[in-house]
Amino acid sequence: MSASLADPTMRLFVVCAAILVLKMSMTSLATAILRNLRGVFITPEDYVARGKQPREPDEEIERIRRAHHNDLESILPFLAVGFLAAATGAVSYRFAWWLFVPFPTARILHTIAYSLGLQPWRSIFFGIADLALWITAISLLVASV
Q: Domains, the chain, ranges and CATH?
């Protein structure tokens, strides 16, 4: 086992990071599968390649696509600050658990709520994940000063 994975905080981060990457990949794949099943594409050349006429966007597909776009704005920063917080020891294991575990949980629930159009749940789950991201970043900053 690698020396860094001997640290429980780093191990926790790695598990959460892997879950987040898989979640983002599955959201992207769901968008692509639905586009192909429903024949609703994003670019004119996709319609031409399939000999079809352009159609209006499908709201369900667009919701999943927007959730994925939101992931890119939220998960990628978390991967960076979470890794640095775990690698530098800026957060204890117990504190990291309360930051690292709620983040992927809230992001998964956010995607479900976004896909189904569930408010206020979408905003609540977004806020939980954002709070974990902010606290992780602030903890890293405080530990570095």
A: 4-27+59-144 (1.20.120.550)
How far CA 136 is from CA of 28, 33, 94, 102, 125, in Å, comes to: 26, 34, 13, 12, 17
CB 81 within 8 A of CB 136: yes
- Tens place of pLDDT per residue across the chain (145 aa): 445 888 999 999 999 999 999 999 999 999 999 999 999 998 889 899 988 889 999 999 999 999 999 999 999 999 999 999 999 999 999 999 999 999 999 999 999 999 999 999 999 999 999 999 999 999 999 999 8
Query: What is the CB neighbour count within 10 angstroms for residue 30?
Result: 18
- Between CA 22 and CA 107 the distance in angstroms is 12
The one-character DSSP state at 145 is: -
Token representation of residue 28? 């992207």
